[in-house]
Amino acid sequence: MIFDRRAELGEFLRSRRARLRPEEFGLTSYGRQRRVPGLRREELAQLAGVSVDHYVRLEQGRNLQFSGEVLDAVAKALRLNPAEREHLHLLARPAPAAAEEPTGGPPLRPGIHSLLSAISDAPAYVVDHRTDVRAWNRPAAALITDFGELPAAERNMARLVFLDDGVRDLYVDWWARARDVVAFLRLDIARPPGPPAAQALIEELSAVSPEFGQIWAEHDIKAREHGSYRYRHPLVGELELAYETLRLPGHPDLALIVHTAEEGSPSQEALRILTR
Fold first, then answer.
1. Where is the HTH cro/C1-type domain (predicted)?
2. CA 56 to CA 177: how far, in whole Å?
3. Whether 131 contacts 158, CB under 8 Å
């Protein structure tokens, strides 16, 4: 499964068209049986206020030089959320020249490691665009897995969620977590530096995990911002933790994820026991 920007653009647009129904927009039928669900290309073009040929060239990836105004009009017609709109803009523009990625990415600043160590009562870790866990604190290792005991190539959240039985069992709603990690990955790999490192991960997971292939085909997009997950930890039982995401200055492809529990909740007490 190769990540090709033009193919990805077409598949993404078709998947978003399939979610919509003509009757939602007061469109009249063309008088023939529909062969596919959702809006037709000509209907989408009409809603976006662009020519059918212009939209077809966009969906087929024949031209990656579309203006922001055209892309915004298409995004509005497709009712894209902000993350999906960003994804469309990333895919519909020429990819920047890919620099050679050093193995494991560039070294992190010492201050980032110091920051993680200073967060002593909340699980926190740093991930890159391909979900590699680049650094973590002791509470994160206690909550998720002992990253330090894993080979560097296996310190990857997507791999752990899909291929590690212990991590899989950790999430009460594993499917929700799996869909999120794929949606995060899909948005992030369209950003620089993008493939080839991310490409190798997609190919690996597609080959060994039917669930990954199923979810990848859904083309869902989600920004890694904030949310919550319920955990079933073998030492402290169930707990619900919120997470917040902070982008690191000077490292636009890196994100700091911090998990917290509601003040005074049983989850906070469980987290306190887990991290003491």
1. 32-85
2. 34
3. yes
The pTM score is 0.84
Q: From CA 123, how far away is CA 121, in angstroms rounded?
A: 7
Contacting residues for 13 by C-beta, under 8 A, at least 6 apart: 58, 59, 74, 78, 88
Is residue 269 left, alpha or beta, with left meaning phi > 0 and alpha meaning psi from -120 to 50?
A: alpha
Let me know if 57 is exposed, middle or buried by CB neighbors in 10 A (0-12, 13-18, 19+): middle
Q: Tell me how far CA of residue 187 lies from CA of 209, 235, 269, in angstroms.
A: 20, 34, 35
Query: pLDDT by residue for the chain (276 residues), tens digit each?
Result: 556 778 889 999 999 999 888 878 777 655 556 666 788 899 999 999 999 988 998 988 776 678 889 999 999 999 999 999 999 998 887 665 555 455 456 788 899 999 999 999 999 999 998 899 999 999 999 999 999 999 998 999 999 999 999 999 999 999 999 999 999 988 888 876 565 677 888 889 999 999 999 999 999 998 888 999 999 999 999 999 999 999 888 887 899 999 999 999 999 999 999 988
Q: Which residue has the tokens 């920004």?
A: 223
Contacts with 28 (C-beta within 8 Å, 6 or more apart), sequence order: 22
Find tokens 């110091």 and name the residue: 114
Helix (H) or strand (E) holding 189: helix 174-189
